Amino acid sequence: MIELADVCYAYPGAERFVLEHADLRVEPGTIAGVVGASGAGKTTLAKILSGFIPHVDGGELSGSVVIAGRDLAGLSLSACVRQVGLVIQNPFNQISGARYTVRGELAFGLENLGTAREEMADRVTQVADLLGITQLLDRSPYELSGGQQQLVAIASMLVLRPPVLVLDEPTSQLDPAGTRMVFGVLSQLRESGCTIVIFEHKLELLHAHADRLHVLAGQRIVASGQPGEVLADPRTDEWGVGATRYTRTGRLARDRGLGPVAVPLPVSFDEAVGFFGGGPR
Ligand SMILES: Nc1ncnc2c1ncn2[C@@H]1O[C@H](COP(=O)(O)OP(=O)(O)OP(=O)(O)O)[C@@H](O)[C@H]1O
Ligand SMILES: [Mg+2]
User: Fold this and answer.
1) Which one of 43, 87, 168 would you pick to mutate in the ligand 1 pocket, going by the greatest count of ligand atoms within 8 A of its CB?
2) Residue 280 pLDDT exceeds 70
3) Cα 88 to ligand 2 centroid, rounded to whole Å
4) How many whole angstroms from 187 Cα to the centroid of ligand 2?
5) Does residue 118 lie within any of the structural domains?
6) What is the pTM (predicted TM-score) of this model?
7) Does 113 map to a domain?
């Protein structure tokens, strides 16, 4: 269980708070999506959830951040890292720089945890296979494309098997196939009990994979619910979240007096078929 209560935060020396009285609750073994406009504070919230704020970035943090019954304020950064794996927004910055190959990079965090050599090799092989990056294992992490680096950054957290995984726009540099693959892997992880918080703009995939969706706007979480409900909310534009192509089409149709009035706007293709009254030919 992740529980943020009444969280306020300002960066060091900043005049305004990025978060004010923010609350968030994520049930264990679920995928929570968080959406919000650029600059809404997604990266800031991701760092708060993983203890990087205040341990690394400093600043003024109040309220409580409790993960699996433990308040992060009382934990050291290394204890936070064992509890929560953070995949940061820019994969280039996730590379440790301490190892010459992707294999070494993936093993680096496990070395720090004192994992036995054989176990380490097994985990690296397994995660590389899961994310389809086995062919990159002997390459330099610096010679990869942005998308490949992004997969390595995700893999470097997955090998650690943290009970909670926080991912900050982890598919921004991936093509649609790579993006679907990553969402598939996250769904598998959920099955094994991992609690996942993903900050992401790809609404259709969030709708398909997230258990709940939270909207960050105006310094706090302004809406939480089933992804379908949240994404069909008339306030998504106001929140700076946008809408799926199906919702936009439904809205346009409704504006022109087409489509049913008493049902929510569609979010997915299947819902659009129902909305527009289509059926099997
Ligand atoms: N290190 C910092 N010091 C001061 N202000 C910062 C710092 N990092 C971010 N901010 C400010 O905090 C606010 C939220 O930034 P944040 O990066 O969390 O937003 P975001 O939702 O992740 O944006 P994006 O979608 O562009 O990644 C912005 O106004 C930003 O300028
Ligand atoms: Mg960000």
Assistant:
1) 43
2) no
3) 9
4) 22
5) yes
6) 0.95
7) yes
